[in-house]
Amino acid sequence: MAQIKVERLEDLFGAARAVGPVTLAIAAPEDRELLLAARDAVRAGIALPYRVGDEQRIRAVAAEEGIDLVELKAQLVQVSSQEGGAAEVARRAVQLVRLGKARVLMKGKMETADLLRAVLDRDGGLRTGRLLSHVALIEMPGLNRLLYLTDGGVVLFPTLQQKLEIARNAVILAHTLGLAEPKIAVLAPAETVNAEIPATVDAAALSKMADRGQIAGALVDGPFGLDNAVSVAAAETKGIRGPVAGRADILLVPSVEAGNLMAKVMTFLAGGQMAGIVVGGSAPIVITSRADLHQGKLYSIALGVILAAAQESGGPPEGRKGATNELGLSGQPSPVKEAEGRPAGRG
């Protein structure tokens, strides 16, 4: 895949058009904003969707909203409500990706946990040996760069080892989008290391791990508060120096709770726009909030298309299968435990 440079969310469309259209399996597309996003993705020449779900429900939503399903050019995989509900819809959508018929998976009107159960299934899922994690690509008014926020969607309370791989997943994404050496700020409630605040200890450890080459292709520092991670003035006021201080590209949060709340404050209260993707599987997984408008879902589809093309062409070497074992990391937590624990708060 040709080198790309994504500096604004709008840049995703040009990059996706250059490699599209890519097939997209949508699990339960019974949602107005999602159908509009799928329609616009087809119009833009970036995606060719499969509709996986109950056709009667899909048609009812489309008719109510005046959406022409013919324009979607979408193949139907019929799963009636009597066939097993969301679990069967998720399984069939994942199966399309496993069989190579679709290259991107997308969550529709269903709980994220239902989709991730199918994704993490040991026999029929999309496991690669790498940890799955969510990355939100956020464009904020007045900020001259995109922010990569992770993980606000999959790993509830990551261990130090899991944070290491979450960081690596975000770096792979940043490299794919043309950011050669992203700056990672590991966030915590305080900027100094305090044994009573585990997030600060993990942040310091990750910074040292990066110094020892365990996170390649990025600059890593922490602990940081959010203010001194994104604002040079705030960092200078607190006497925090270094190449990451106030200039972070990637914000690594201590928990899903922190990341989920931060993403929603940025988008619903501060005027930000967002694309969301789950990385680490054998195919990109588009997971957005059901409250997101169609433009955000469209950005996310474009991001998934770009990543699918990058994976097919080999992608950055650190993103290939086996990276987890090379680091000596534990794999993804049990799919049952993850799903029951509601792994993706943005659902």
The spatial strand order of the largest sheet comes to: 8-7-9-6-5-10
How large is the share of residues in beta strands? 15-25%
- Tell me how many strands there are: 11
N-to-C terminal Cα separation, in Å?
Answer: 31 Å
Shape: globular
Major sheet: 6 strands, mixed
Class by alpha and beta content: alpha/beta
SSE arrangement, N to C:
HEHEHHEHEHEEHEHEHHEHEEHHH
Q: Helical proportion?
A: 40-55%
Enumerate the spans where pLDDT stays under 50 for 5 or more consecutive residues.
316-347
The DSSP helix count reads 14
Radius of gyration: 19 Å
Mean of the pLDDT scores?
Answer: 88
Lay out the secondary structure.
Elements: H1 11-19, E1 22-27, H2 32-43, E2 47-53, H3 55-65, H4 69-72, E3 75-78, H5 85-98, E4 104-107, H6 112-119, E5 133-139, E6 147-150, H7 160-176, E7 183-187, H8 198-211, E8 219-224, H9 226-230, H10 232-237, E9 250-252, H11 256-269, E10 273-279, E11 285-286, H12 294-312, H13 323-327, H14 335-340
Parallel strand pairs: 1-2, 1-4, 2-3, 4-11, 6-9, 7-8, 7-9
Antiparallel strand pairs: 5-6, 5-10
Compact overview of the structure:
This protein is α/β, with parallel strands linked by helices and about 350 residues long. The protein has helices at about 10-20, 30-45, 55-65, 70, 85-100, 110-120, 160-175, 200-210, 225-230, 230-235, 255-270, 295-310, 325, 335-340; strands spanning about 20-25, 45-55, 75-80, 105, 135-140, 145-150, 185, 220-225, 250, 275-280, 285. The chain is about 40% helix and about 15% strand.
